[in-house]
Amino acid sequence: MQASLSLSVSNPAAIPRSDHGFESSLPFPSKPVNLRFCGLRKEALGFSSTSSSSLSASRSNRNVAGSKKVWASLGGDNGSSSSAAKSFDYDLIIIGAGVGGHGAALHAVEKGLKTAIVEGDVVGGTCVNRGCVPSKALLAVSGRMRELQNEHHLKALGLQVSAAGYDRQGVADHANNLATKIRSNLTNSMKALGVDILTGFGAVLGPQKVKVGKDTVVTAKDIIIATGSVPFVPKGIEVDGKTVITSDHALKLESVPDWIAIVGSGYIGLEFSDVYTALGSEVTFVEALDQLMPGFDPEIGKLAQRVLINPRKIDYHTGVFATKITPAKDGKPVTIELIDAKTKEPKETLEVDAALIATGRAPFTNGLGLENINVATQRGFIPVDERMRVIDSNGDRVPHLFCIGDANGKMMLAHAASAQGISVVEQLTGRDHVLNHLSIPAACFTHPEISMVGLTEPQAREKAELEGFEVAVAKTSFKANTKALAENEGEGLAKLIYRPDNGEILGVHIFGLHAADLIHEASNAIALGTRIQDLKLAVHAHPTLSEVLDELFKSAKVNAHVGSPVAEPVAV
Amino acid sequence: MASASSSLLTKMPTPSNTTISFSASLSPALPLFHSQSHLRRHRRTGNALRVQSKIREIFMPALSSTMTEGKIVSWIKSEGDLLSKGESVVVVESDKADMDVETFYDGILAAIVVPEGESAPVGAPIGLLAETEDEIAEAKAKAASAGSSAPAPAAAAPDVSPSPPAASAPPPPRPADGPRKTVATPFAKKLAKQHKVDISKVAGTGPFGRVTPGDIEAAAGIVSTKPNVAAPAVAAQSAPIAAAATPKAASAPSTPALPGSTVVPFTTMQAAVSKNMLESLSVPSFRVGYPIMTDALDALYEKVKPKGVTMTALLAKAAAMALAQHPVVNASCKDGKSFTYNGNINIAVAVAINGGLITPVLQDADKLDLYLLSQKWKELVEKARAKQLQPNEYNSGTFTLSNLGMFGVDRFDAILPPGQGAIMAVGASKPTVVADKDGFFSVKNKMLVNVTADHRIVYGADLAAFLQTFSKIIENPESLTM
Predict the structure, then answer these.
(1) Rounded to an integer, what distance in angstroms lies between the CA atom of residue A536 and that of residue A63?
(2) Comparing B178 with A344, which gets the higher pLDDT?
(3) Which residues of chain A from 275 to 334 reach within 8 Å of chain B, CB to CB?
(4) Radius of gyration of chain A from Cα atoms?
(5) Parallel, antiparallel, or unpaired for β A493-498 and B98-102?
(6) What is the DSSP letter of B169?
(7) Of B127, B63, B67, B57, nearest to B99 (Cα)?
(8) A432 a known binding residue?
(9) How far, in Å, CA of B271 to CA of B265, rounded?
(10) Distance from CA of residue A268 to its chain's centroid?
(11) Cα separation, B113 vs B126, whole angstroms
(12) pTM to 2 decimal places
């Protein structure tokens, strides 16, 4: 039954032209755009065939993956021009098999494009191998260590636990095993769907032409650059991989230093401070801006600092640059020379056991052959328009060339890259799509977690000033949430920034238990344009943490009375 | 935060919506919306207060309409810190959320009246702000005299004299490269601030001569507490102790150990005893003694002894019967605000076991007869020796009995265990010459009992009446066997 259903779905997918013509004639997307935020979720698709959409994907893929002959004849039967299949090796080539490239490849296959992905390193990219994934393994350990070490917390729950300890190698293995597992899942999912994985360093030779490795040249109708980023190391800092390290080394957890300086207090630095302090290290933050956690909503940052920094074995220097960092050698500790960020005067020299450089990430775009197509990078980033189309040095768009993810620098998050890739594939298959970056959530997996979507309060107020609308803020505390109190984790705040005149959500920021999971109600609402007055009517199971957001929406005061009509009740 | 307060916040005219500002001089009125000129007017009219006018009290603010008291989450500033107008000073937890409280004035945080973790009603002073350094001492004196529950943490802070790096080898002197600055780890700095230790005077023993948290603790005379020690398994709840048997709680801090002495860390049971003893210091207790003739009791004891009845059972039964008539002595004060009348009379009896101290509990001692009680006691003691007492068998006591009579002790007083209203210390019964009301001398067995009670709930007359009843039962012990 399911099989026949999937076939009927897969056929139209193989005729992109006729299909999209119908869809794009609609005034606005009636179907929710099928964005997959983290490609990782997709790894299951390669193995399970429980959902009809996955079946349809794999069915249509088998068509693609089949011999060229079959594909061509199919194209002919459907009356599609399908020039790609005739004059190009592929419909789409993606350079870089990170989460962005993977997300784009899977969606392309689903849309019936013959797709290849070029990988010069390992499948999975930074996220899977040196980023989000292994760090979550370390954070899972740190969260449990924190709980087991918190005598007060345990006592309040009536628990008695004797001294908690850990085995460093065991923790490191857990992170490594997780990365390996996710990597193989990712590889298998692409293989199963018929994506060709071309191994070698990819470079753009010219329009619609890609060189893979030393001398293989492949052509494709369209090309997506998804080469990602590498840790950014400011000059003057000598990374030796042992005592002065980047996140790439830190995730291997080869040592747990007694005292580590973390340069940069953004997401990466903050997550590592959570890991290191839980494992017994003391941490010193070095932050160039005047306050810790730049980029977070100031109020959330303040609360987070009170919970994540002040009570822990952490101190910090703000408003300072680390101009020179020397690894430990000849019996000397790691030295960090600090200067005042404004006056540039030397301030002091820190002596620590290790330093983690978490000053952000730099795009990985060298050697991509961009000069062949007259594209000049800006601080390494590839310039793109709002549809991820690459812009050349004359300001014109380069046909058939797109760039997604960290390499374009729009929003350096794995799931943003994936969303951008899917958006590009939508355009390639004829449906115009512009990704709303304000609907992309972000999360920092400290204990408790921080998450956000949309604008911060200062950004919203600035925008309101410019555009002349009113901004209001609503807040709820986790202290009032039954589930949070049952877990004895009442510390937390959810904050909603909105327009009281029409009920539009401008931003939501959450700090508290499972904040990273809670944000999606808000990000989906922004993505779908749902107004607060409608969200107020939605029902949440009791008692759950989701009621924090329920209460948040209900506490907002919206002047507009009528929202979009509630869907007609359906008899069941 | 609920809607009420959030709407308040959004409508606040202050540039930052995230904090609530306030601080008032001695005016007790609602501080939140005071303007400075308003405050000045108050001050000018109150001439009598002029002397103190430069010391301002920081009040517990009302952060929401339903808030009646607030808890101090943390003091962002420490005593002696300079404050400038608009800076956050303290974080207050209301019934709904945590909020930063800012100061309206420049000055020096002279004294913290309500320390972190404690609560104060809205409007109560939580700290003192001095305008100049000269006034700090005055403010501290004021804080100390500010009666109520306000301890003066300043005075409590130990006068720390960093111990010289006596026996422990000092870090190897580094090649002279000018005067070296002290390097201290983040946690060491935190501890130093907390314990008011001058880091520059502490010799670092860590790698590269850096000051470690351990160094600061040593300098502050604190015994390092390893986090997450196994939670106490037994005797956690109530381990009362006869004062005579109490080990000297805390040896004088930072005195160097005498040569030849050994340091033996507490066992869990001993740690629990120590903790309970310290806790007892927060209870205002008093003592009442009473002489009781025991000839009749001794005679009874001789009679029932062959049936397995112990003196402990007799005394427990007598105490339970007296408590039944004086329920207030069997009550306890758990929160400092109310009486908790216990439905059962459970007599805890202190026994020394294996170098520790535990209090097996004879539950419903007033209801069981002597023989059952004696049998029960025997079981409890056996279980205690085998460390098999269940928590409710050692922590459910409502009244404690401690008997040192068997050692010949004629009188002593006991420390009231936390969570109970009274404890009875029983001395030895000794032949004593007594004169009766007609002036005739005789020799009678007399024993002295001494009851320590929580004066928040048990008053002198209550205790005296209870002891009178108790002595009547002992002196006419027939009722014990009924």
Answers:
(1) 46
(2) A344
(3) 282-284, 298-299, 302-303, 306, 310, 313-315, 332-333
(4) 25
(5) unpaired
(6) P
(7) B63
(8) no
(9) 9
(10) 13
(11) 5
(12) 0.59
Q: Confidence class of residue A562 from pLDDT cuts 50, 70 and 90?
A: low
Residue A541 host element (H or E): none
Q: Residue B272 pLDDT more than 80?
A: no
Interhelix angle A168-193/A52-65, nearest 10 degrees: 60
Burial of B268 (0-12, 13-18, 19+ CB in 10 A): middle
Can you tell me which residue has the tokens 């989701």?
A546
Read off the pLDDT of each residue in A396-423 and give the average, rounded to a whole number: 95
What is the residue-wise DSSP string for B428-441? EEEEEEEE-TTS-E
Give percent above pLDDT 70 in chain A: 83
Mean pLDDT confidence for A306-327? 93
Evaluate if residue A76 carries a pLDDT over 90: no
Assess whether pLDDT exceeds 60 at residue B51: no
Tell me which residues of A are annotated as active site. Answer: 542
**A179 phi/psi in degrees, rounded to 5:** -60, -45
Query: What was the pLDDT predicted at B106?
Result: 83
Give B70's strand partners. Answer: B120
DSSP-derived secondary structure for B212-232: PHHHHHHHHTPPP--TTPPPP
Is residue B248 predicted with pLDDT exceeding 90? no
The answer to whether the CB of A468 falls within 8 A of the CB of A496 is no
- Prior bond of A448 cis (ω within 30°): yes
What is the bridge-based pairing of β-strands B241-242 and B347-349?
A: unpaired
Q: Quick: pLDDT tens for A282-316.
A: 999 999 999 899 889 999 998 898 899 988 999 99
Contact A229, A361 (CB under 8 A): yes
Q: Is A267 annotated as a binding residue?
A: yes
Q: Tell me whether strands B347-349 and B361-362 are parallel, antiparallel or unpaired.
A: antiparallel
Where does B159-267 have alpha helices with state H?
A: 186-195, 213-220
Taking phi over 0 as left and psi of -120 to 50 as alpha, with beta for the rest, B178 belongs to: left
Q: How far is B230 from chain A (nearest CA, A)?
A: 4
Say if residues A446 and A271 touch (Cβ distance below 8 Å). Answer: yes
What distance lies between CA A402 and its chain's CA centroid? 19
Q: Which of A15-24, A111-120, A397-406, B416-425 has the lowest mean pLDDT?
A: A15-24
Question: What pLDDT does B95 receive?
Answer: 57
With an 8 Å Cβ cutoff, are A351 and B183 in contact? Answer: yes
Q: What's the CA gap between B375 and B360, in Å, rounded? A: 13
A265 is in an annotated binding site: yes
Question: Torsions phi, psi of A422, nearest 5?
Answer: -65, -40
* Backbone angle region of B342, left / alpha / beta, with phi > 0 → left and psi within -120 to 50 → alpha: beta
Kindly provide the ipTM of the predicted complex, given to two decimals.
Answer: 0.74
* Residue B447 identity (one-letter amino acid): M
| Interface probe, candidates B228, B237, B267, chain A, greatest A C-beta count within 10 A | B228
CA distance A312 to A272: 13
CB atoms within 10 A of CB B264: 6
CA–CA dist B464, B16 (Å, integer) = 61
- Is B230 near chain A, with CB under 8 Å? yes
